[in-house]
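Sample intake — Helix-turn-helix domain-containing protein
Collected from: Halogeometricum rufum
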Amino acid sequence: MTVERLPAAELDAVFGLLANELRIEIIRTLWEQQEEPLSFTDLQSLVDVRDSGKFNYHLNVLVPAFVERSEDGYALTHAGQHVVGAAVSGRFTEADEITVDDVPAGECMFCGGHLSARYEGGDVTVDCDDCEDLVTRMPIPPNTVSGLDPEDLPAVFSRHLLTLTNRLSRGFCKLCQGRVDSSLTALSSSESVTFRPSLDVRFDCRACGDRTHLNVGGVVMDHPAVTSFLYDHGIDLRRSYVWELTSLLDPEATVASEDPLRLRLVVRLDGDELELTLDETATVVDHTRG
């Protein structure tokens, strides 16, 4: 997939509007008073700016992108709320300020050894103490980890990873929320970043061009046939470490057809098995349980 270079004007249209202390103060004030819209007079008074002309100019710069104006007054738009959310997340200011040292994170799917999870530089990393293989690494906003008991880090990270995986598998970019196209890379294994090329799924965002690779087991994890199969065997995805689901992340995988591409997966648990057939977009098109 080829993505056009993002024009500087588009970035300036976002960041340029916010590059002013008074505008930031207007957004902060509207956030703090968000229960109901504020009139021009009340907003100006709370921001504490005497020059009405100056205040009106900077307020109008924020309309309509970050602030909406109605008969009832002024309020933040959805985009304005996202600006506050991005700031509160700590992604841009606190990534290097919070660390969590190694804590136990379950059993390694590669060697059966002990896994450890840690948070450093804005990333959670899970790797094996014995074989030293990297299991997964992903950025998480500092506010998700701040105040967390260290031993709870793996569970929180697992739920975060599951949420991200579900978002991508349902067609939405993890960065810009744009639509993504998913594809199996079983016939072009050089692109794979998974430990087995046949299990690799690539997601390309149509809007921002972000490219993400996931294990196909994670992609089908929220399919009803899969969740019910796991639950019937005592596995609740909401309370499990997703990287320990070896039967799903390392299933029997066979390319059943190349044109059209069809990938057959067999997941086994306690003598029971679930067979899934996926098309070229990693969509389950058939499943049987036996």
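Post-analysis note: The chain has a mean pLDDT of 89.
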